[in-house]
Specification:
The chain is α/β, with parallel strands linked by helices. It is built from 8 helices and 10 strands. Helix 3 packs across helix 6, helix 4 packs parallel to helix 5 and helix 4 runs parallel beside helix 7.
């Protein structure tokens, strides 16, 4: 969305920033609108609308990484009960997309492959925002789930959790990000009551004229009208892979009971590989422990009410 002209100072006008920013904003908006009108390349959109309608829906935006996505799928199944989980595949690599589709089929998770993204790997944040807006316009808005949330593919729970629970006392939930005095929810973990968007137009992309990253497009219509002090923030901790403490060289994040890999370590491929191995091991250990607990727990007795209601 273009910035109001009143936000610009005299120096901005001398450099012609207001008209240039406005033209760039509308060009991005037109590309996003055209993308959102395209059908998915794989998946049954109408069926997923029916599956998500009236329920809690959790949607992962996948991108070229079936390995970490597989761990997320299994961790969500083990530790987050209730929501329908849907993978929206924004992959730019056809071979990786095929792997992700096969993975979802094997794991029994709903799958959509999004149309070719106009931004692609050259602009990851803009590509991600366009994917979120496609999912909102083509799936969530028509399906109208009771509540919905977005996940990055490299974040997974390590213990039982209900990410929708906070929505019982607040309209949105997730991890706050700040740019100067403005805030928005990190696009990798954000949840919303559906009625939040009944009277406003959602935009899960960037608001780049005011330096807000993916998800910040909702600043003007949504976040600017909410009190950030009323939005509960879970603890976030950087954990060093090698030292056991925070380090700028090689770390992942603990966000509450969720683990966030944090993507590759720039310029240090050996650190990236070490972090991936460590993250996968932590998720696998949590899943193994959950499986042991499940085997040790006796199966619940069937409800007499359920037996009485069951057909003969």
């Amino acid at each position: 969305m273009p910035r109001p002209f009143s936000d610009y100072d005299a120096g901005d006008w001398l450099r012609l920033r207001p008209p240039l920013d406005t033209m760039r904003s509308w060009r991005i908006a037109r590309a996003t609108d055209a993308f959102a009108r395209r059908p998915p390349r794989a998946g049954h959109l109408a069926g997923l609308e029916r599956a998500a309608s009236g329920r809690q829906a959790m949607l992962t935006i996948a991108f070229n990484d079936p390995e970490i996505l597989g761990r997320q799928i299994r961790a969500v199944r083990a530790f987050v009960s209730g929501p329908v989980h849907i993978v929206a595949d924004n992959s730019s690599d056809a071979a990786r997309a095929a792997e992700i589709e096969m993975l979802c089929r094997a794991e029994g998770v709903a799958y959509l492959r999004l149309p070719r993204n106009p931004w692609g790997p050259r602009s990851p944040s803009r590509s991600h925002g366009a994917a979120l807006n496609w999912v909102w316009r083509r799936l969530i808005k028509p399906a109208r789930p009771a509540a919905f949330g977005f996940l990055d593919h490299d974040i997974a729970p390590l213990a039982p959790d209900d990410p929708f629970a906070a929505l019982e006392r607040q309209p949105v939930a997730g991890d706050k990000r700040w740019t100067n005095e403005r805030w928005f929810l990190w696009a990798g973990y954000c949840f919303f009551r559906i009625e939040v968007f009944d009277t406003i137009e959602a935009d899960f992309g960037q608001d780049w004229p005011i330096s807000l990253d993916t998800g910040g497009g909702n600043w003007r219509a949504l976040y600017s009208r909410l009190d950030p002090d009323q939005i509960v923030q879970r603890p976030i901790e950087n954990v060093g892979v090698f030292s056991g403490g925070p380090t700028s060289d090689c770390f992942f994040e603990r966000r509450g009971v969720w683990l966030h890999e944090q993507g590759p370590t720039a310029g240090r491929p050996e650190f990236t590989a070490a972090k991936r191995a460590h993250v996968l091991a932590l998720i696998d250990d949590a899943l193994a422990a959950a499986a042991v607990r499940a085997r040790a727990s006796p199966a619940p007795e069937p409800s007499t009410h359920a037996l009485a209601a069951a057909p003969p």
